[in-house]
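wait is this the right file?? whatever heres the structure
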């Protein structure tokens, strides 16, 4: 059984008129044969299907959306399943999530990773493929898209709950795949926490772990004889302003053959560069860069050092988030050293305690969830 997994799909900007007019060949003509040759294929459906009366939720970052034509496009490409656990699926609330699941089903496309309430969102997708049975578990890091007791949304990353899901899946299926949406945007390596978590999923019984979200591809490793792929990049997602030749534009589809479980095959491509399309590249297109990433991933000391360097480069962004008054004028004065930071040491120590202590963090989590009901 050959399984193909692709990354983030958002038909926006230059892609939108092509999708709405049904010019799917322009988008997916080059990858369609690869998708159809697989026995089962998945991609991350990153934006909900929105209608006129839907309203965006309050959140950080953009509220993404698409129309029902987005489903027609992936059906043309040959995809059989849409993973919905991502940080945008709930961008327009309950009705948009419900509609997205329903319209995918109407087109004969399976979905996993979203539903009404946490239990429904966490449901394992069991799929018979030939004589074998596949189990797919889909989750995402905790942002504004997560389901709650009575609301539609995504299945949150929770290693304890995923452990029990893997155990259930192993009892009922021949193979278990975990698809996770998370990681640091525009950074080509996993964090040590991600590596620990994904290795834990393999230790718990998963046969393959694949991650996306970072808007760039990462490397992979074979751990305990099973592949872990730490990032596959955007699949079809345009940027405004247009990016050309940047990490945003490159990614790969993963092909996993259950007869060769300790290996993966990749299909590299560039997407939404000079033209709004997915263009297949030579198999060794970025082999050198992948080897470099894989070398770091295989050496925990190197991975720790690279992560620390990345976090250090983000220090100013974090500091700006912690400033109690968010204001362009104040920020401008502070950049020119005409106004001191309003962040005092006593306050940062209190924040440190609330973020790092699990019990305090539980209270913070409840506070923000309750505040945004």
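ok assuming it is, sequence goes like this
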């Amino acid at each position: 059984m050959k399984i193909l997994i692709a990354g983030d799909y958002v038909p926006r900007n230059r892609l939108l008129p092509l999708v709405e007019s049904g010019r799917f060949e322009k988008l997916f003509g080059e990858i369609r044969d690869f998708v159809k040759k697989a026995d089962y294929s998945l991609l991350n459906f990153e934006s909900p299907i929105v209608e006129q009366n839907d309203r965006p939720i309050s959140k950080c970052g953009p509220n993404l959306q698409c129309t029902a034509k987005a489903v027609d496009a992936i059906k043309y490409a040959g995809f059989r399943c849409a993973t919905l656990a991502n940080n945008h699926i709930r961008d327009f609330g309950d009705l948009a999530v419900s509609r997205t699941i329903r319209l995918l089903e109407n087109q004969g496309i399976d979905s996993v990773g979203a539903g009404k309430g946490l239990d429904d969102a966490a449901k394992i997708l069991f799929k018979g493929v030939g004589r074998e049975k596949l189990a797919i578990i889909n989750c995402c890091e905790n942002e504004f898209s997560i389901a709650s007791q009575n609301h539609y949304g995504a299945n949150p990353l929770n290693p304890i709950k995923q452990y029990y899901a893997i155990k259930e899946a192993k009892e009922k299926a021949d193979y278990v795949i975990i698809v996770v949406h998370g990681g640091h945007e525009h950074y080509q390596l996993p964090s040590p926490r991600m590596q620990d978590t994904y290795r834990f999923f393999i230790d718990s019984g998963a046969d393959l772990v694949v991650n996306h979200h970072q808007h760039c591809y990462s490397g992979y490793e074979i751990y305990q004889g099973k592949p872990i792929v730490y990032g596959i990049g955007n699949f079809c997602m345009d940027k405004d302003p247009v990016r050309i030749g940047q990490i945003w534009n490159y990614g790969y589809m993963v092909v996993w053959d259950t007869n060769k479980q300790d290996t993966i095959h990749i299909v590299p491509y560039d997407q939404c560069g000079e033209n709004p399309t997915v263009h297949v590249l030579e198999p060794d297109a970025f082999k050198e860069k992948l080897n470099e990433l894989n070398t770091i991933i295989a050496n925990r000391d190197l991975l720790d050092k690279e992560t620390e360097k990345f976090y250090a480069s983000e220090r100013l962004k974090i500091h700006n988030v912690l400033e109690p008054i968010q204001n362009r004028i104040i920020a401008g004065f502070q950049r020119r050293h005409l106004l001191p930071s309003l962040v005092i040491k006593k306050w940062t120590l209190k924040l440190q305690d609330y973020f790092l202590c699990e019990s305090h963090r539980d209270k913070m989590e409840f506070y923000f969830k309750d505040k945004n009901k």
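The mean pLDDT is 94. so i think its the right one actually
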